[in-house]
Design brief:
globular, Nucleotidyltransferase, domain 5, 5-stranded mixed sheet, 19 strands, binds adenosine-5'-triphosphate, binds magnesium ion, alpha+beta
C-alpha cells in the first residue's frame, strides 16, 4: 500500500499523520499522551488513552493515571512500577499506549502500519547514557506494540519539511523553534529553492533542551498552590518548616508511583502536630492521599492556556473541600516563568553560534509547538527578532508529524 506514516510521540500530545503516493499529507489526528489503567486483581486489560483516559481519571475511576511518560524515559533510577500486582517497565507503558493508539489508527484509516518514521527530541537528557536509555525504551515500546521497522528522525528536522507555504522564494535561511510540553528544540535550515523535495533543505544544525510547557505548569502550581496548602506553616514546638519536597512532588506531571497511604498518615501525624496552619496542612494531606495533584495540575494548565488570551485568570479547585481559588495575572505568570523562558530562548544564541550564523542572517523564524502560544514567550522572542522575521505556525500541533510522514514518503518507507 502506498501510504507513509509518521508518529510524533509527544510529551503532551501524540500525533499520527499519513502521506499518500503523490507526497501530500492525507490526514492527521492527535491524542493526549496519557494513559489510564483500571485496577483489576491481576490483570492489565482495561486501558484507556487520550480523552478517554482523562474521562476515567476525572470521573474518579479506580486505576492508575500516567502523564508525560516521555519525560521519564531517560530516568535510569525508574525501572518499573507495580500495576495490578504486575511489574510494568517504562517500555511497557509506551507499548500499552501504542496498542490503544493502533486501534484508533485502524478504526480511522483501516490500516495497520508496520513501518513508520518516529520523531525523537534532539535530546531526551543532556546525559548521553540517559539519552540512549530513553531512545532504547521508546523503540522497545514501539517494537512490543508491533512496529517492525522504525526510522527515527529528530522532531524539528521533521518540522522543517512542513513550512514551505510560509516561506517566500528569497528566504534562504530559517530557524525553527519548537516549544513543546517537555522539550524545546531548535533547528537552523538552509533552503535552496532550485532544488525540490527533501533536497531543498540542508539542516545546518540542531539543538535542544529537555524543558517545555510542562515545567511552566509545574512552576505555576508550585508558586500559587503551595501557600493554600500550608507551605508557610511550621509544626512541632520547634517550629519546623514544612518539607518543600512535598510541594515539589505534588507539582509534577510525570509521577509514576502511587501514593503510599500508610506512610502519608504517619508523616502527616507529625506535620500537623502543633501546626501554625493545620487546616492548610490537612488539605495538603488530602491532595496527596486522594491523588488530586494531577487534577489540580490540569486546572493550572487550563489557566496557563487562558493567559495566552487574557490578562488575568484564576485557578479554581473545590473538590474534597479544598476550596482553592487563586488569581493569576499575566504579570504574576511572567514573573514565575521568566527565568525558564529566558533559559529556553538563550538556546537561540547557542544554535546560532553552533552554525556560525547571526540573528540577522535568519530570513524567517518559525515558532511551532503548543508552548509557542504563550504570550510572554512570544514577547521575549520579539525582543530578539524583528516582526518581519517571525512566523507563528498555524498548525502547531501537527507540523512535526506531518513532516515525519513526508520524510517517510521521500525515503520510500511504506507502512507495510
Ligand atoms: N493556548 C496555549 N497557551 C499556552 N500553552 C499551550 C497552549 N496550548 C498548548 N499549550 C502547551 O503546549 C504544550 C504541548 O505542546 P505540544 O503538543 O507541541 O507538545 P508535545 O509535542 O506533546 O511535547 P514534546 O514535543 O516536548 O514532546 C503543553 O505544555 C501545553 O500546555
Ligand atoms: Mg512536540
Amino acid at each position: 500500500m502506498q501510504i507513509y506514516c509518521g508518529i510524533d510521540f509527544g510529551t503532551t500530545n501524540t500525533v499520527v499523520s499519513i502521506t499518500g503516493k503523490n507526497g501530500s499529507v492525507i490526514d492527521s489526528f492527535s491524542t493526549p499522551t496519557i494513559l489510564f489503567i483500571n485496577h483489576e486483581a491481576h490483570n492489565i486489560s482495561k486501558i484507556h488513552i487520550g480523552a478517554a483516559a482523562l474521562e476515567q481519571f476525572e470521573n474518579g475511576r479506580n486505576g492508575r493515571y500516567l502523564h508525560s511518560i516521555k519525560r521519564s524515559l531517560h530516568d535510569k533510577h525508574l525501572k518499573q512500577t507495580i500495576i495490578n500486582n504486575q511489574r510494568v517497565t517504562l517500555a511497557q507503558l509506551v507499548r500499552y499506549f501504542l496498542e490503544e493508539l493502533n486501534k484508533e489508527i485502524t478504526n480511522k484509516w483501516g490500516i495497520i502500519p508496520h513501518h513508520i518514521v518516529l520523531g525523537r527530541p534532539v535530546i531526551f537528557s543532556p546525559d548521553k547514557e540517559e539519552d540512549e536509555l530513553a531512545e532504547s525504551r521508546l523503540l522497545e515500546g514501539f517494537r512490543m506494540a508491533g512496529y517492525k521497522e522504525i526510522t527515527l528522525l529528530e522532531e524539528p528536522v521533521a518540522a522543517a519539511l512542513c513550512f514551505e507555504s510560509h516561506l517566500s522564494d528569497d528566504d534562504e535561511h530559517f530557524l525553527i523553534v519548537d516549544l513543546g510540553g517537555g522539550t524545546s528544540d531548535f533547528t537552523v535550515v538552509k533552503r535552496d529553492v532550485k532544488k525540490t523535495g527533501i533536497d531543498r533543505y540542508d539542516i545546518l544544525g540542531i539543538h535542544g533542551i529537555n524543558m517545555g510547557g510542562d515545567h511552566f505548569d509545574e512552576d505555576l502550581m508550585f508558586a500559587k498552590i503551595s501557600n493554600p496548602l500550608g507551605i508557610n506553616a511550621t509544626y512541632s514546638s520547634k517550629e519546623l518548616p514544612m518539607p518543600v519536597h512535598l510541594y515539589r512532588t505534588i507539582s509534577r506531571w510525570n509521577t509514576i508511583h502511587p501514593a503510599n497511604k500508610k506512610k502519608l498518615d504517619e508523616e502527616f501525624r507529625h506535620l500537623s502536630y502543633q501546626s501554625t496552619d493545620r487546616d492548610a496542612v490537612l488539605k495538603l494531606k488530602s491532595v496527596m492521599t486522594n491523588n488530586l495533584s494531577r487534577k489540580i495540575l490540569h486546572k493550572v494548565r487550563d489557566s496557563k492556556h487562558e493567559l495566552s488570551e487574557s490578562a488575568e485568570t484564576a485557578i479554581v479547585f473545590d473538590e474534597h473541600e479544598l476550596d482553592i481559588k487563586e488569581n493569576v495575572t499575566q504579570s504574576d505568570f511572567e514573573t514565575i516563568i521568566d527565568s525558564r523562558t529566558r533559559n529556553i530562548t538563550s538556546n537561540i544564541d547557542k544554535i546560532l553560534d553552533q552554525t556560525g550564523m547571526k540573528i540577522e542572517d535568519m530570513d524567517k523564524v518559525i515558532l511551532t509547538g503548543g508552548s509557542s502560544q504563550i504570550a510572554y514567550m512570544q514577547k521575549v522572542i520579539r525582543e530578539i527578532f524583528t516582526e518581519k522575521q517571525i512566523i507563528i505556525d498555524n498548525d502547531l500541533h501537527n507540523s512535526v508529524s506531518k513532516g515525519l510522514s513526508s520524510f517517510a514518503y521521500y525515503k520510500g518507507i511504506k507502512i507495510t
